Amino acid sequence: AQHFLDRAKAQQALGAFLAIDEGVTLAQARAADARLAAGDAPGLTGVPVAHKDIFVTTDFPTTAGSRMLAGYRSPFDATVVRKLADAGMVTLGKLSCDEFAMGSANENVAAPAVGADHAVPVRNPWDTSRIPGGSSGGSAVAVAAGLAPAATGTDTGGSIRQPASFCGVTGIKPTYGRASRYGMVAFASSLDQAGPMARSAEDCALLLSAMTGPDPMRDATSLDRPAEDYTRSLSDSLEGLRIGVPKEFLGEGVAPGVRAAIDAALAEYEKLGARRVEVSLPRTELSIPVYYILAAAEASSNLSRFDGVKFGFRAKDYRDLADMYRKTREQGFGDEVKRRIMIGTYVLSHGYYDAYYLQAQKVRRMIADDFQQAFKTCDVIAGPAAPTVAWKIGEHGDDPVADYLADVFTLPGSLAGLPGMSLPAGFDANMPVGLQLIGNYFGEARLLNAAHRFQ
Ligand code: GLN
């Protein structure tokens, strides 16, 4: 723990951490030592982990990357945080993310980073002039730069897989409902899922086994299915595995260097005994408008709780209650969050609900059906996690749509609630390229097995 805290301090300029508390971490580490000495220690005892600052924690402040939660301290731990602590892990601190997990570049963070008195964009350690991806950018950077051996992330539309891809680490988002959402600051509840990010599929398997499982009293959407040991089948043979490559995932718009890295990875899989088959996910591009309607709609509802009364920030000067709400939300939320609240409110409003929200729900179902069609002829789907490598900080300027378009390959799986992961596949102009693997429901073990054999 001391080693990683020192690394985090030395690499502060990356902006990965939003909270560190050496006293808390070292106390947890000493308690882990005592458990080890007493011989009553679960498998991950003493292994440090850092949490995306979207998970609430009693030992550290939680900001969700927002000004809105400045000064907020949760009275309880998120289930994922508690489960990893129960497994013996030691918390290194809280990691930067886009505000309320809304973003693809970690440029939307509005909470100050450790060592800075203001918010800073997180930097990709492979090239610090580039973004690390988002929204779990701090998590990807912490692992890639060796500031933590593992980290938690959340993935609503790609926020584990895309930053893992951009930073050359491994990350997995399990089937929707596999990990409890209790204590994860809610963005889009029908999509939000937690998962691990680490240096290998094996490490991800260890964490995922510890952080998943039913949580019926606290998250009604957590699935009633016992936790699994994902390490058991890591070394299984890939002989005969049918890898479906959607033709829409390697078409126009994919950078040639990314396509080359993915093709090379798929050729490697063929050497391992897998078979490459072509499949189709015809509604891939539609996943962008569908996701940005549904996620915004859910966000506009979830974020109504931030009103200056219950959590964190409250505006200073106001006339009356309504004015307090207005000023708190005006000052507390960043631009992207406000944009989503407005879009979400619009698509849910009378007269537009049928035209946008309901239509998007219908297409979401079709996208899920397209996957089931594809899984008739393949076991695992593969393609790039993103069409390009990490772009330059500021490159997308004030154009949010440029960020949205970059999510095109992670959104379909999210809308279908399928498990997905990204693992390092190669490089394009010295920047990491991630191979995305998507499995059918509860196919996490198969994905981790396929990733492990490749690594
Ligand atoms: N980039 C997507 C968005 O901005 C996904 C974010 C996420 O998965 N949390 O909504």
TrEMBL record:
Pfam families xref list: Amidase
Organism of derivation: Variovorax dokdonensis
Catalytic activity: L-glutamyl-tRNA(Gln) + L-glutamine + ATP + H2O = L-glutaminyl-tRNA(Gln) + L-glutamate + ADP + phosphate + H(+)
The entry's keywords: ATP-binding, Ligase, Nucleotide-binding, Protein biosynthesis
Stated name of the protein: Glutamyl-tRNA(Gln) amidotransferase subunit A
Protein's UniProt keywords contain ATP-binding: yes
Transmembrane spans: none
Function: Allows the formation of correctly charged Gln-tRNA(Gln) through the transamidation of misacylated Glu-tRNA(Gln) in organisms which lack glutaminyl-tRNA synthetase. The reaction takes place in the presence of glutamine and ATP through an activated gamma-phospho-Glu-tRNA(Gln).
Family annotation (InterPro entries): Amidase (IPR000120), Amidase_CS (IPR020556), Amidase_dom (IPR023631), AS_sf (IPR036928), GatA (IPR004412)
Gene: gatA
